[in-house]
Amino acid sequence: MSQFKAKFPQGFLWGGATAANQIEGAFDEDGKGLSAADFVEYIPKNERTKDTAIEVTSEQIRRILSGESTARYPKREGIDFYHRYKEDIALLAEMGFKAFRLSIHWSRIFPNGYDEMPNEAGLQFYDNIFDELAKYDIEPVVTLSHYETPYGLTEKYNGWAGRETIDHFVRYAETVFTRYRDKVKYWISFNEINMITISPFTGGGVVSDKEKNPEQAKYQGLHHQFVASSLATKKLHEIIPGGQMGCMLARMSTYPFTPNPEDVLKAQQDNQANLFFTDVHARGEYPKYMDRFFAENGIEIVKETGDDEILKQYPVDYISFSYYMSMLSSASPEGEVTEGNLMNSLKNPYLQASEWGWQIDPIGLRVALNDLYDRYQLPLFLVENGLGAYDKVEEDGSIHDSYRISYLSKHIEQMREAIGDGVDLMGYLAWGPIDLVSMSTSEMSKRYGFIYVDKDDEGEGTLARSRKDSFQWYKEVIESNGEIL
């Protein structure tokens, strides 16, 4: 048998990914309104009971708005990208980025979400960002909604639980498509759309304790997001010829814990529960396996006339996803449990874990890529992958993050093998190329970046940027189109 060597295609989109609420700061400048992310407080690790402090209750909101709360809200501060974007984009360009994923903060454009007119200062800010990226030939990949539902929509409709939010989202999408039609080609409707079923407030601005049936509200809000995504896709194709809309899934690949057929069945069901979201986006209809889930959980999706036709007529152009880890499923779970991104899982004895308990599984990425491509036959885009870790700054200011290089290189290697398997992969965007506020824990010490930001968990620091060892490594990866790992 001859030796086969897989290669990355020419034009592969190497780069990194961020979210407005984790980097921008300036939460109340230039007319921006409050969003869901502005209500997420920092809880020190020794006081945290689980990795889901991102849910917010009515009482918490009341205390925050009344001024009673003395907590810190790190996503309001970010890393001051709002004022430092030129410096930060120059550093990304130095690494040779071909693409940079960012989100538009919806409440910068429509401060309450339902305003009659957009906020010009917000529109101009993103004009400036896209112009700066264009200077370096960096392709923007723009997420319309990345855990940033305007609070005004929560107050008025309980976020995505209210069908009225669809029209406000579509008007927002139409506004930015029109404004940036000559600057942005690649769009994503909702970041990790499955989040609304895990943390409804984060994923959809839904305050669960306002709902008589919170489980029903999750999936009703999700249906509204599906319809809104399809209608936004329709608008995109009308306004930007050649524009592409992607969906985005937090891919949680699941293996059976043992060869016991009951475990195999449970893993299959868990994988279906995760792929349900992309099934609707890509195939344009609810999969039949969800009928049983809805029936057993007392959920009845309320649809308006024409919803099914909208989903069918306007599916996404590509599938983007995040991949950090794999999980295990068991019909009778017994054994050590490890923390994961949004979810916990049984510990896999064949895998190592990060300092936050996320199981590191590079080969699982190849499996996930093949599964997704086999299922949908649509271009794939890995728009989040990375290692959150503690970084030590040496006396001379250097940061030797060999652990990050090892993690990323092993995942990129498996990605290359998947391309060799025949997978159509558009690009790779490492999560958090510059240190940012953690989504799930609001920490700064959980660092992902190639670029270090001098800021700690308490918000102290100069915000100075510096290059880690991984900065030069990733630069060489991009220069060699993945040949040098």
UniProtKB/TrEMBL annotation:
Molecular function, one GO term: beta-glucosidase activity
InterPro entries tied to this protein: GH, GH_1_N_CS, Glyco_hydro_1, Glyco_hydro_1_AS
GO biological process: carbohydrate catabolic process
Active site: E384
GO cellular component terms listed in the entry, alphabetical order: cytosol
Classification via SUPFAM superfamilies: (Trans)glycosidases
Entry keyword set: Glycosidase, Hydrolase
Keyword Hydrolase: yes
Lineage: superkingdom: Bacteria
UniProt keyword Hydrolase present: yes
Family: Belongs to the glycosyl hydrolase 1 family.
Protein name per UniProt: 6-phospho-beta-glucosidase
